[in-house]
Design a protein that fits this description.
Layout lengths: L7 H18 L5 H16 L5 H11 L5 H18 L6 H14 L5 H16 L6 H10 L5 H11 L16 H4 L7 H9 L7 H9 L1
Helix pairs in contact: 1-2, 3-4, 3-5, 4-6, 6-7, 6-8
Length: 211
């Protein structure tokens, strides 16, 4: 991997083999073997030997893996890579492309995958990589999600609370998270966003909304 860029005739095939293995066999690979392929994938992207759009797509497909370590690794990788791309100057076109992709992920049927998009948006905003209105609006869209796993971190972000779940990962949802979540809760979540973080009603509303 340290010298692959010096063999341009083999880069495309090697990259293709790594991606194909990750996408077709990663869920059944031994964790150590999967980690090795993930490391190769991340190294190839860091050296810009894999197109950005393909790398982001692969990363989010790996987010569907039941291995929490895989999801955390991919989350950190995506954040770090986007930060790296914007280190010298804002890559506006690239950022819009990724943000458009993330907006689709926010609507994914898999709440765990959608939640990862929320975490990434929040972390990039907090790191001042994407601290624009477009990013804020995407996080606001997540507040209207039907699954608590998706909307909870977004609401906490707007309330100025620490999104502790960024460092945690839970595969399960309580029954109350998945049953009875209808459009009538959308006004509640919008109301939560509008309440100042020091408002005395906040603790009461949060208790009603999240207990």
């Amino acid at each position: 991997m340290q010298v692959i860029q010096f063999y341009p005739d083999y880069v495309e095939r090697f990259s293709s083999d790594v991606l194909q293995t990750l996408l077709s066999r990663s869920f059944g690979l031994h964790p150590q073997m999967r980690a090795a392929f993930m490391k190769a994938f991340m190294r190839l992207k860091t050296k810009d030997l894999i197109p950005l759009n393909k790398a982001i797509d692969v990363a989010f497909k790996l987010h569907r893996c039941q291995d929490k370590q895989v999801r955390q690794t991919m989350r950190n990788f995506v954040v770090h890579d986007i930060k790296r791309l914007n280190k010298r100057q804002k890559m506006s076109k690239v950022n819009v492309t990724i943000q458009t992709y993330l907006s689709k992920i926010l609507r994914d049927d898999n709440p765990t995958v959608a939640r990862e998009a929320v975490f990434i948006l929040i972390r990039l905003f907090k790191k001042n990589v994407w601290n624009d209105s477009r990013t804020a609006n995407l996080i606001a869209d997540a507040c209207l999600a039907k699954r608590k796993k998706v909307y909870a971190p977004a609401v906490r972000f707007f309330l100025g609370q620490d999104v502790a779940a960024e460092g945690k990962d839970s595969d399960s949802e309580s029954e109350s998270d998945t049953v009875g979540i209808t459009d009538q809760f959308c006004p509640l979540r919008i109301f939560l966003i509008s309440i100042p973080s020091d408002h005395p009603l906040l603790s009461v509303v949060l208790k009603v909304g999240y207990d």
